[in-house]
Amino acid sequence: MEPVPDGFEPGAPIGDWTLYREGCFDITPLNPPPSGAEVFSYFQRLPLPQLTTQHQPPGNGLTGLPVIFYTDSPTTQTFTVDIRGFEVVIEATAEQFTWNTGDATGQIVTTDPGAPYPGQTIEHSYRSGTYTAYLTVTWGATFTVNGSAEADVPGTTTTDGPPVTFDVLQARPVLTNPYN
């Protein structure tokens, strides 16, 4: 640190001041709105719903009769979060449904949440046995910052729903005497 020149007190100005500019200054660059990548990091940590797997027939299934899968859980959800003082509204939407069937055939991937009988869209045939199925949902989202124009969140995240276990039975015809 340089010594204070003779005749000056510490903190006293030495020399002339130069005026460069005066007026109002935009300090937005000091706290820019959240980027898509920043919103994505919040999106990945949101408590997205775990969609439940419904199946028909309820209870046990039968070989030769396909099991119908669907979910009746909500497939959209809105979250409002604060990111560095900005109000960010994230609209999450289920974009892909992966039906994990629990057998060797693996998975059925759709963009459809399915529907119950008679409008069913997701079916799977099984051999006799016990199976555990569950639904993995891939979520995408859009977001707004302080009411701005809507933008896509750059990336997706997934949730696994609770498993459902059921038996598939084999029915055997039996001849009976109708007069007994």
Structure at a glance:
By secondary structure, the protein is mainly β.
- What letter string, H or E per element, gives the SSE order? HEEEEEEEEEEE
* Proportion in helices: under 10%
Using the coordinates shown, work out and report the CATH topology: Immunoglobulin-like
How is the biggest beta sheet arranged? 8 strands, mixed
Number of discrete domains:
1
Number of helices: 1
Mean pLDDT across every amino acid position: 91
What is the CATH-assigned architecture?
Sandwich
Question: What would the principal axes of the Cα set say about the shape?
Answer: rod-shaped
Instruction: Determine the structural class based on helices, strands and strand pairing.
Output: mainly beta
Highest CATH level, the class: Mainly Beta
Strand-residue proportion: 35-45%
CATH superfamily: Immunoglobulins
Query: What is the CA-atom radius of gyration, in angstroms?
Result: 31 Å
